[in-house]
Amino acid sequence: MGATAQNLSPQARGRELARQGKALFFEYGSVNAAARQLMNRHQDLPSIQAYRYAAGLSQDQAAARYNEVAGNQTTLGGTTINAWESWARARGTAGAGSPPSFASLLILATAYGRGPHSTADEVISPGDLVQEAYEKLPVEDQLALKTAFERSPIPATSDSLRVRNGVVDGSPDADNIIGPDFNLHVPTIDNGNPAICAFSLPNPNPAQLLDLTWNTLGFGIQRLMRQIKSLGRRLDADICFGVNEAGLVMATFLASAQFNRCSIGYLKCNRAKNEITFGTDSYFPESVESPVIVICDFEVKHADVVGLVARELRQRYPGAELYFAVFGAMTKGSSLEVDSFEDLTGAKIMQAANFEAVFIAATMSPPGIEPPLELR
């Protein structure tokens, strides 16, 4: 977003975003496409607000449309729409606004799917409305969003996708679809190799988290090992830290297979009232002076967990070299085969953490991915 837009008053900026959203709808003929384009242009704009602008509605008009969809059995006002958007916009600030319920998201998705002047009839996923704030929702609403819709059978004959270890037919033991490999330049050591080969993880059910199979998790860990070997020099880790249980699984495999059974640490991240703290059962092994540490995390979205982790480890291990290996990185746009590291939602977070190098197995779309057995 340019400096001029930054200097606008909130009212003037709202009018400008509304103008852009409506223009994008008529350009693309789609609320979903218009909202995505608007979020690409204004990265601080929460999705629930972008969809309202793409539908050509003020907050009061959005409330009226909501009541209409509900058969006028509700009396929602514009202040409630504002509270939901303030909550999504806060991104880590406690006490700002209030989250929409699962039922409200269902109604709002239908309301916004009608587009400007009720000229459209588009299916909008309720999960897309809160894609960057999904983890801030109450656990019950997260589960409701995840299980709201039955998984539909996925064709296994797409030209752009291939299936590993099984046919995708909607059965519980079906493996995930793995998208094309692509090269991505990431932050790395001086004179190191900045190019990594990642793969995409298309989600056939965008309203739900993508449940990964063990095959896919193993394939991603193998991809991280290949990237580490291609760094440009040998990387010998003193400690592999796992962030939460899924990261701990990754750290265990990498420590054994890649780093000669180095020490394994554990960081349990607790989230309460939009704040992240480390649990008392986190484990920080003893190590040499100025150790080489590889941090393993399952996914990177918007929350600055990796920044908190990096600060904690630098405090506990002065002079440490920190490397970051993540299974899934969320993209800003609809395309998973991104052209630039900057196209990842967590790019600035990872850059600010000042890692020696970054390794990424796969890219993913909102609302994200779920590890096998729902490891946390």
In short:
The protein is α/β, with parallel strands linked by helices and 376 residues long. The protein has twelve helices and 13 strands.
SSE order and pairing:
Layout: H1 3-6, H2 10-28, H3 31-41, H4 47-54, H5 59-69, H6 78-90, H7 102-113, H8 139-147, E1 162-163, E2 177-178, E3 181-185, E4 195-200, E5 210-211, H9 214-229, E6 239-243, H10 244-257, E7 263-267, E8 269-272, E9 275-278, E10 292-300, H11 305-316, E11 321-330, H12 347-352, E12 357-364, E13 369-370
Parallel strand pairs: 4-12, 5-13, 6-7, 6-10, 10-11, 11-12
Antiparallel strand pairs: 1-2, 3-4, 8-9
Helix pairs in contact: 2-3, 2-4, 3-4, 5-6, 5-7
Task: Give an overview of the whole structure.
With 376 residues, this protein is of the alpha/beta class. The chain folds into 2 domains: 145 residues, no CATH class; 213 residues, Rossmann fold (3-Layer(aba) Sandwich). Helices cover 36% and strands 17% of the residues. It is built from 12 helices and 13 strands. The chain has a 7-stranded mixed sheet. The protein has a two-stranded antiparallel ribbon with strand order 1-2. A hairpin with a 2-residue loop joins β8 and β9. α2 packs across α4, α3 packs across α4 and α5 crosses α6. The longest helix is centred in the N-terminal third of the chain and has 19 residues. It starts with a helix and ends in a 6-residue tail after the last strand.
Radius of gyration: 22 Å
Q: Total helix count?
A: 12
Query: What's the architecture of the largest domain in CATH terms?
Result: 3-Layer(aba) Sandwich
The CATH class name of the largest domain reads Alpha Beta
**Most strands sheet:** 7 strands, mixed
